[in-house]
Amino acid sequence: MEKPGEMTTLSRVMQKLHEKGLDHELKMSDHGRMQNIEKQKIYNPEELKIIKTYRFEGESDPADMSVLYLIEDQEGEIGYVLDAYGAYSTHEESGFDEFLQKIPVEDREDQLIFA
Q1: Is the pLDDT of residue 69 over 80?
Q2: Which pick of 3, 33, 46, 59 has the fewest CB atoms within 10 Å?
Q3: Where on the tree of life does the source sit, at the highest rank (predicted)?
C-alpha cells in the first residue's frame, strides 16, 4: 500500500481525493463567498477550515507551480481549492486572497485525512 507521504504530484493527490470521495471543488461565488458547486452550499470564511495545503513545483516552468488547499466545512465535508502559485494565480475574482486568509488553518496529517 502506498504511504501518504508518497503523494508528491498534484495528479496523485487528486486521485486520492477522488478515491475517498473528497473531490468537491470549491470556487468563489458571485457574492464573494466560497461555494461547493455540486451541493450548491455557500460559505463564509468562519464556516470553513483549511486542513491541509500542498504546494507543487513544475520542473522547469514557474507557471507550473500550483497550490491545493483541502478545506473542511462545519459538517465535516472536505473539498478543495486549486490555484496556481504566487503571481501566476488563476483566481481573478475580487477578494479571493482575502477570503482564503480569513479561513482558520488546522494543518492535519495525511493519515488523518486519507485514512
Answers
A1: yes
A2: 59
A3: Bacteria
CB atoms within 10 A of CB 8: 9
Burial class (CB in 10 A: 0-12, 13-18, 19+), 100: buried
Distance CA 66, CA 82 (A): 7
For the question of whether the overall pTM of this predicted structure is more than 0.85, the answer is no
* pLDDT given for residue 101 in this prediction: 92
104: containing domain: 10-114
SS (H, E, C) 64-83: HCEEEEEEEECCCCEEEEEE
Cα-Cα-Cα-Cα dihedral sign, residues 91, 95, 29, 9: positive
